[in-house]
Request: fold
Amino acid sequence: MFARTFFLSTLSVVIFSSQSVYSQFCFPAKKLYAYSQPVTRGIESRDDLKPKPAGNFYLYIESKRSGITLGNLWIMGEGYNGQLKEVTSPVILEGTVSNSILMKGDAPVELVPITNKKVYQVVLIAREQGKPAAPLPVKYSAKAVVMELHYKNRKKIVTAYEMKPLKLEARY
Reply:
């Protein structure tokens, strides 16, 4: 009787721990690509006492399977709303091309290399009126990008310590 109880309790512990390990290792999102591009603001308004820094964020997720969704998103500690949009790889940011002889266009930049996995772009969307962003958990406050991803009934936090800087985009 004791051996049977011991065996069943050991088996249940092994099954429970293998399921939690399975959920961590089998989550399809594998890599986060994060880029930031500063943007000149053009003509400053006199009303802007303390203008916010302007910039573009390029965020991509590489995944083994489809079906992942974006929960919460924080960039540089600030909450954003976003959606995932599937794109084809490689993802290339074309340089700005000018017709002027004095200004040459920049070379294209490969943001995501060619892969046979699924690639999702994070598209930032407007937050609903009156709905504040979720607070950033304190343990992730030093990270540049923090994403909460969902796949089936599982949740995973994906982070990046820094965002790779891109060349300045001038707006006239």
